[in-house]
Specification:
Elements (H helix, E strand, L loop, with lengths): L4 E2 L5 E3 L2 E2 H8 L3 E5 H18 L3 E6 L6 H9 L3 E4 L2 H9 L7 E3 L6 H9 L4 E4 L2 H14 L3 E8 L2 E4 L2 E4 L9 E2 L4 H9 L5 E7 L10 H21 L5 E3 L17 H18 L6 E4 L3 H4 L3 E13 L3 E6 L8 H5 L5 E3 L9 E6 L8 E8 L7 E5 L19 E6 L2 E6 L4 H5 L12
Parallel strand pairs: 4-22, 5-6, 5-15, 6-7, 7-8, 8-9, 9-12, 9-13, 13-14, 14-15, 17-19
Antiparallel strand pairs: 1-2, 2-3, 4-16, 10-11, 16-17, 16-21, 18-21, 19-20, 22-23
Helix pairs in contact: 2-9, 5-6, 8-9
Bound molecules: ligand LLP.
C-alpha cells in the first residue's frame, strides 16, 4: 500500500519512517497515516474531472476520519468537505477550513447545528427531510440569510460491494423518495423560497462499491427528475452530487478501480442525459471518504498474550481491539496484517488476532497468516484509515489511540493518545449521604 516498504532491518516502513520507531516513540495502539497516499488519491479524483473538462467538487466525507490535521490536509489538496454533525463542522472550523467549501449532511440536524451552519456561512446544506425544510425556512427568514441547498433523494438504487438492487421505494432512513412523490413535494416546498437557493440533487447509494453501474443508474434517475422539473417549472439544476462509496482493497479478494474508472462512467451518463433532455451540464460533486483515507491508515499494536486452543486455533492478543476498530465485530470486516518487526520473514503461522476487550467477539482478524509472533512484537493491520479511529469508543474505559501522520521520512502527531485523566474528565462525583 502506498509508500510501505521493508527496510534492511526487516522492519515495515511507511512514508520512509520505521514503524517500530513510531511504536517506540508514540506507543501502541497507534494509527499511522501515509499522507502521500491520501494526496495521491485526492489528486486522482480531481485530475479526472479536469481531464474530462467537467466542473466538479470533490468533498472529503470526513466521517471516515476527522481531526484538525486531516481537515488541513484536505484544504491543502483542494478538497471540499462533507460534514455530518455539529462536531465535525466545529472541528473543520477549528482547522480554518474555508466554510464556503463545507457541505452539511445528516438526517436529523438539530436547530443548533443548523444555526451554526448559517452563522459560519457554510457552502451548502444537503436537506434530508420535511422537518428540516421547516427549520431551514425558520432560520433563514429569522436571520434574513441565504443558504444554498441540495435535496437528498433516495433513488431506489442500493449498491452492495459487487452488485446493486433497485427498488421502487427504498427502505432508507435518508432522503426524499424519488419514486413516490416525496421528492416532488420537497421541490415544491423550497423552489420559490426567498432565502433557500436550490442548487440540485444529491444521492448516496452505498459504500465499498466496486461496480460503476449502480452510480450510473442513480445518475440517470436523478437527471430524469431534473428534466421533469425543468419542463414543469423551468428549474435550472446547477449541481448533481452523487455521493461517495468507492471501494478499496482490504484483502486480496477486493479489486478496486482507479478513481478515474469510478467516476468517468457516471459522468458520461450525466453528459448523455443532459444532451438528450436539453439541460445544461451540472457541476458534479462527489463525496469519497473511504477511498481517500482507507488504505492510507495502518494500525500498530503490541502483541501480548497467546492462547492455544488445541486443534482449533491459536490466538494472539493485542493491546487494542474493537475499541479502536469496531469493523470486524460490527460488519465481519476482513483485514490483512504483518508482524512489523519481522516483515521480511515468511508468514509461516496462522493466528487469530484478538483484542483486549471483554467481549468474545473482539477479534480483529480470524486465522491470519502471519510471521511467528512473540510478546512485544509489533503487529501492523493494514487499511484501517477509514471508519477506524472515527468509530472508536472508550468501551472498557480504554483510552483512544494516538494518530501520527508520516510523509517523506518525517512524522508528526495528529491526535494525542487519550489519558486516563481524559477518560474521567467528564465524570462528576456523586454527593453521597454519609452513613453516620
Ligand atoms: N456521502 C454520504 C452521504 C455518506 O453517507 C457516506 C458514507 C459517504 C459519502 C462516504 O462513503 P465512502 O466513500 O466512505 O464509502 N461505517 C461503515 C461505512 C459507513 C458509510 C456511511 N456513509 C464502514 O465502516 O464500512
Amino acid at each position: 500500500y502506498g509508500t510501505q516498504e521493508v527496510n534492511e532491518t526487516g522492519h515495515l516502513t511507511i512514508g520512509g519512517v520505521d514503524t517500530i520507531d513510531l511504536a517506540k516513540t508514540y506507543g501502541t495502539p497507534l494509527f499511522v497515516y501515509d499522507l502521500a497516499l491520501i494526496r495521491k488519491r485526492a489528486r486522482g479524483f480531481i485530475e479526472t474531472f479536469k481531464q474530462l473538462g467537467v466542473k466538479a467538487e470533490v468533498a472529503y466525507a470526513s466521517k471516515a476520519f476527522a481531526c484538525v490535521g486531516i481537515y488541513q490536509l484536505a484544504q491543502e489538496e483542494h478538497l471540499s468537505l462533507d460534514v455530518v454533525s455539529g462536531g465535525e463542522l466545529f472541528t473543520a472550523l477549528q482547522a480554518k477550513f474555508p466554510a464556503e467549501r463545507i457541505h452539511f449532511h445528516g438526517n436529523n440536524k438539530s436547530y443548533t447545528e443548523l444555526e451554526l451552519a448559517f452563522d459560519s456561512k457554510i457552502g451548502c446544506i444537503v436537506v434530508d427531510n420535511f422537518y428540516e425544510i421547516q427549520l431551514l425556512k425558520e432560520i433563514s427568514e429569522r436571520k434574513q440569510q441565504h443558504m444554498r441547498i441540495l435535496l437528498r433523494v433516495t433513488p431506489g438504487v442500493e449498491a452492495h460491494t459487487h452488485d446493486f438492487i433497485t427498488t421502487g421505494q427504498a427502505d432508507s432512513k435518508f432522503g426524499f423518495d424519488l419514486n413516490n412523490g416525496q421528492a416532488d413535494q420537497a421541490f415544491d416546498e423550497v423552489k420559490d423560497h426567498e432565502y433557500l437557493e436550490l442548487l440540485g440533487l444529491h444521492c448516496h447509494i452505498g459504500s465499498q462499491i466496486f461496480e460503476t453501474d449502480g452510480f450510473s443508474l442513480a445518475a440517470e434517475k436523478l437527471m430524469n427528475k431534473i428534466g421533469e422539473w425543468k419542463e414543469q417549472s423551468n428549474f435550472e439544476c446547477s449541481v448533481l452530487n452523487l455521493g461517495g462509496g468507492y471501494g478499496i482493497r482490504y484483502t486480496e479478494e477486493d479489486h478496486p478501480l482507479e478513481p478515474q474508472d469510478y467516476v468517468s462512467e457516471m459522468i458520461k451518463t450525466v453528459q448523455a442525459l443532459a444532451e438528450q433532455l436539453r439541460l445544461a451540464m451540472p457541476e458534479i460533486w462527489i463525496e469519497p471518504g473511504r477511498s481517500l483515507v482507507g488504505d492510507a491508515g495502518t494500525s500498530l499494536y503490541t502483541v501480548g498474550s497467546h492462547k492455544n486452543v488445541p486443534n482449533i486455533r491459536e490466538y494472539i492478543a493485542v493491546d487494542g481491539g474493537m475499541s479502536d476498530n469496531i469493523r470486524p465485530a460490527l460488519y465481519d470486516a476482513k483485514y490483512e496484517a504483518v508482524i512489523a518487526n519481522r516483515a521480511s520473514h515468511n508468514k509461516t503461522n496462522t493466528y487469530t488476532v484478538a483484542g483486549k476487550l471483554c467481549e468474545s467477539g473482539d477479534k480483529l482478524i480470524v486465522d491470519a497468516p502471519l510471521q511467528q509472533a512473540e510478546p512485544g512484537d509489533v503487529l501492523a493491520i493494514f487499511c484501517t484509515g477509514a471508519y477506524g479511529y472515527s468509530m472508536a469508543s472508550n468501551y472498557n474505559r480504554i483510552p483512544r489511540p494516538a494518530v501520527v501522520f508520516v510523509e517523506d521520512g518525517q512524522h508528526q502527531l495528529a491526535i494525542q493518545r487519550e489519558s486516563y485523566e481524559n477518560i474521567v474528565q467528564n465524570d462528576l462525583p456523586l454527593s453521597l449521604k454519609k452513613s453516620e
